[in-house]
Amino acid sequence: MIKQVFDIENDIVFLEENHYAYKLLSNINAYGTSYNFCRFFKATTGEKSRAVISLFNSSMVIATVKGFYCDDEICEDIITFILMNKPDTIEGNAVLLKKIFNRLEDIYTHHKRAYYRFTASGQSKDIVVDESPKLDVVYEILSEGFKSIRDNYQLWMTDTSHRIRRSQSKIFLYNNCTTATIQYEISGNVFVGLVATKSEERGKRFARLLLEYILKKYPEGYNVFLIARENRMSYYEQIGYDEIGRDIILERKITNG
Question: Collapsing DSSP states into helix, strand and coil, what is residue 174?
Fold first, then answer.
């Protein structure tokens, strides 16, 4: 059974400590549980908690509990929930997503992803970075490479500015052409996403310099990482980043009409 919840503090402590739980927690920290566009649900079988699910606009994150076992009952519940809500993207336990995908492949496709931990190259140099850039400048850069942002200017602008005000996100801009976003910093885990460079400035190592700048801001012991899809994995491998895991993300297929 899956039902909406408004007080989930007791459930969060039982979640696996991974990217999905941290991303879900960042949504809670940014918005709480009182907005229609940011809702939270608890999945149970019998009296046993199995997962907490975040629905933020059209994206779903499934954070499973410690010791999670992917049985048929929880799969059926989550498949039904997905078909009722039809989110654009679904992230969560890789075993779970792989198991339910064959029932969803008429409306969803899947993409492989790899997690990379930042490592210093030993060749970094001091650079000047704008840590409070104008969001319109950042949007212009990101819109070249991220269709979901290009098609949703107002949504990205509203959410990004809100998360920055709530100290949940931070944006960096280098040389007015390369940007990266700290999307959350939780329990020593720093997730960096939305790394992009203007097309005419690519190939000049700007992204690498900016990522090394971000890494230097955190003392030893922090896990600073990013996620790359298959078409970008070779880049992060070439610059020496350490792969620390893989998963998949489900995306709803684009249909006409």
Answer: strand
